[in-house]
Amino acid sequence: MRVDPADRALAVAGAMVRPIVYVGLALPAVIIVAAAFTAGDSLRFPPEGFSLRWFQAALASGPFMGALWTSTQLACIATVISLALGLGAAFAIDRYEFRGRGAFRTLTLSPLVVPMVVLGLGLLQFLSWLRLNQTFVGLLAGHVLITLPYVVRTLSASLILFDRNLEQAAANLRASPWRVLRRITLPLLLPAIVSATVFAFVTSFGNITLSVFLGTSRSITLPVQIFTYVEHSYDPVLAAVSALVILVTLVLIIVVEKLVGVEKVA
Amino acid sequence: MHKRSFLKLAGATTATLAAPAILRAQAKRFDGITIRTNGYGGDYDRILKEYVAKPLEERTGLKVEYQASTLAAAIAKLIASRDNPPFDMLMADSPNIPELLTAQIIEPLTAKEVPNVSKLLPKVREFGDFGIPYLTNAIILTYNSKLVKQPIATFADLGRADLKGRVGLLTPENTGGVLTLIALSESNGGSLDNMEPAFQALAKMRENISATTPATVNMLQLYEQEEVWAGPYFDGRVYSMRAKGRPMVSVIPKEGVYALYNYLVPVKGGKNREAVLAYMNQALSDEAVGALVEFFRYAPCTNVPLTPAVAKEVVVLPARDAIKPIDWAKVAKIRGSLTERFNKSMR
Amino acid sequence: MTGQAAPPAVAVEADRSGASVGRRRLLLLGPALLFLVFFLVLPMLGLLRTSLYPGERSFDSSGFSLLQYVKFLGDSYYLGVLAETIGFGIASAFVSLLIGFPVGYSLARLPAQKRRWRLIVVILPLTLSLVVVVFGWLVVLGRNGMANSILMGLGIFDSPQRLLFNRTAVLVVLVQQFLPFMILSVMSVVTQISPALEQAAANLRANRFTTFRRVVLPLAMPGILSGLTLVFILSASAFITPRLIGGSKVQMVGSLIFEQVMAILNWPFGSAMAFVLLALTLAVTIGANTVLAHRFVSKGIVRAR
Predict the structure, then answer these.
(1) Residues of C in contact with B171 (CB under 8 A)
(2) Coil, strand or helix: which one is A62?
(3) Cβ–Cβ under 8 Å, residues B127 and B102
């Protein structure tokens, strides 16, 4: 095939942009992880010396490890609930014509539009009125609220392009609606579901503001722990904790891949 | 982790063996009681746990639950859920107290209820019977002696030509920023009723101001990265940089020292008031305040004796009597407009 | 092809009895609807009420007044910050699209093995606490930082440049913060575009650019729109980044709201600002969705709504 100059330009541009983007995304993480290995007393890059002392400090730290566990638990539960609510909502929006469909869609996406501080304040006021402000349920509700939009939008975008012919064909072959759902629809939606899970989990895990407002002393999440630690102290323990979080995330991703099948991760 | 679980096992065994003995002994005063307070996080909480919560627990069985969050969030939480407060006690700073008073969230207490109040220095209880101050945070001037050749002595010096683009300020969102503005105003003939001189002074040094931030630790980063070379900053923070080997100099400004105090206040409607008072008493003790001062080198509000080595680095000690009193209620009223004016002038 | 398949499927749904459809629909959207009404609408209504107080505090307050809105919308300073905030949102969205689309596209087309590690790099920034990320950027963009070292090493500058506390720095960090969302949105939607379509276009002697413009782009539009609006909204509501990277020179409404709510405790004013920001971002979002979707619906590429 002839090599088109426009093609060449596009290829070159792509080849230049992509590595820069990857480097830009990875850079802060690389700096933090490197700084965590410092033997010195302060967060610096390049680090002074090499030592694992800050990792030891991080692992030995009850507050940080407890917070890590809390964050993971919370993110998992919130993601599952979000997926359940969001799957239904996305299906309803995509497959059914009804009055107020547009409004409903906007409603599901609106938690994103509200500034986090405002969401936190509003929920705090409301939950206090209900006497739910110091409970795990309140915190969980907040987290489901901010993860739901991601689930709905990711699934919606995927459902729009879904080829209904496949479902039609299965129905024609006399598969029950439930069977069609289980064997055709959901597997084909799997990339989007996995994508939605990632969005949701990461959003919940990394959330600071909402968790500060709604958190209780028994359920301090990791970002809040870091955020408040930093208000008063500032040492490489933070970098070590972040490095550990990266490690945990990597492990989780690899586990998910193994479970779901590497080809399906979208 | 291993050590901890072993100790737990050993402790549990001992406890079981000693159980009959304990039953015979008198039950501890606050057994089974937990009081909830907010926390500042990091080293601050660590020291409080070690020198206040732990001795208390050993003596009286009282447990303390620290809910670390930013102070602003803690106050917001408290105000939002006044009838079901999330804390029994609050750690707050001078600027917050008028707000808490207006919202009627805190209760007064007397020397009878907290005996160690007698250790407090004169003039530190800014709000009468409300609140117990224990530590002083002062705004002083600092500069990086490696990079700034000529010493700085006054706020006005920050406008010097050699400091172009090298000065860092805390914004009024930060209590340090409020103190800075008050200092700038009063040193130029203004007052809380007339803050105009502060903004005029700011306008004069505008060329020099390279960074403004509302976060104390962010400023620390900026000094460490040599992004900022000089400016007004908290005395304890300057010390922490010096302790890590940075060439930062602490300067008591000629115009005077402006400071706030860290307070403990009991929350209205909180549970276990007696336990809270016991905590406060312990917090005022020499071992607790002494530990805080030793770590942070902030000046104490009590007459706790300090070793010469420690006292040397508590830079505001000699100037303590010169700390200017501040009408925090008035500050609370104007804080909104101050912040707005600051933002507009910095844009 | 996909678009043409739609009508029969819709017809099938309409054939079933209205009651069963209604019931299934209720089951599907009921839980989400209930949840949202209870945990979003009601709290926001409460906050709206707060924004209508005339005073500076929300407790022990009474009365209805638009004073807070007048204060905000009547001041050119605030309007300026608002305009700048929207500007940042739009800029951030389009910059992320520009640099994120190639990445998302290539990720979708890569075999799974190669995709895995690149995907991890994309998700990595989302796992870091923002506070820690800001430190990373201070190191990179600071006076003694890597960027300046490189610039001076290459001889472009003689002395360290002020790379922080300006609009560019804020934009860069915002983009880096939210870029993964754009990449994932694009990737998610491009995987659903069969490569056969692009091959067919190539067989018809269209070069890559034309294929992109006439085949890929229209089909990827839902994902692109999704990513654009997401990044726009997140950027416009951001407050931690402008606070720490922008200094006082770069102000965004998010940080002003934070200031009012947290430090000054003026909740009425803070909530009023929040609702104005909310209204504006919603307007831009709905506007963009309608306009762009309409353009592609009319061409019959995407199913009509």
Answers:
(1) 248
(2) helix
(3) no
Ranges of residues in chain B with a pLDDT under 50 are: 1, 20-25
Q: Which of C47, C233, C302 sits opposite A122 (nearest CB)?
A: C47
Which residue of chain C is at minimal alpha-carbon distance from A34? C136
Contact between A217 and B36 under an 8 Å Cβ cutoff? The reply is yes
Closest residue by Cα to residue C28 from A191, A98, A140: A98
**How far does the CA of residue A158 sit from the closest CA of chain C (Å)?**
6
The ipTM (two decimal places) reads 0.81
Torsional sign, CA A78, A84, A88, A91: positive
Q: Which CATH architecture has domain C67-297?
A: Orthogonal Bundle (1.10)
Cβ of A28 and C192 within 8 Å? Answer: no
Strands B63-68 and B132-144: unpaired
* Cis bond upstream, residue A46 (ω within 30): yes
Contact of C13 with chain A, judged by CB distance below 8 Å, is answered with yes
φ/ψ of residue C136, rounded to 5: -55, -45
Angstroms from B16 CA to nearest CA on chain C: 44
- What chain B residue is nearest to A237 in terms of C-alpha separation? B42
Find the helix packing angle between B328-346 and B175-187, rounded to 10°: 90
- Helix C42-51 and helix A116-129: axis angle, to 10°? 100
* Contact: B342, C243; criterion CB under 8 Å: no
Are B218 and C247 an interchain contact pair (Cβ–Cβ within 8 Å)?
Answer: no
Alpha-carbon gap, residue B184 to A161, rounded angstroms: 63
In the chain, the amino acid numbered C255 is S
Q: Which residues of C touch B225 (CB under 8 A)?
A: 138-139, 142-145
Report how many helices (DSSP H) and strands (DSSP E) chain C contains, helices first. 15, 0
* % of chain A exceeding 70 in pLDDT: 95
For chain C, say whether A93 makes contact (Cβ under 8 Å).
Answer: yes
pLDDT in tens, C61-116: 788 889 899 999 999 999 999 999 999 999 999 999 999 999 999 988 888 788 87
Rounded distance, CA B139 to CA B134, Å?
Answer: 17
pLDDT score recorded for residue C296? 60
Spatial separation of the C-alpha atoms in residues C245 and C127, rounded to whole Å: 20
Sign of the C-alpha dihedral computed for residues B187, B193, B196 and B198 taken in this order: positive
Which range in A139-148, A149-158, C14-23 is most confidently predicted, on average pLDDT?
Answer: A139-148
Whole-angstrom Cα distance, residue B158 to residue B165? Answer: 10
Cβ neighbours for B221, distance < 8 A, ≥ 6 positions apart: A234, B227, C135, C138
Residues 38-77 of B with CB under 8 A from A: 39-45, 65-70, 73, 76-77
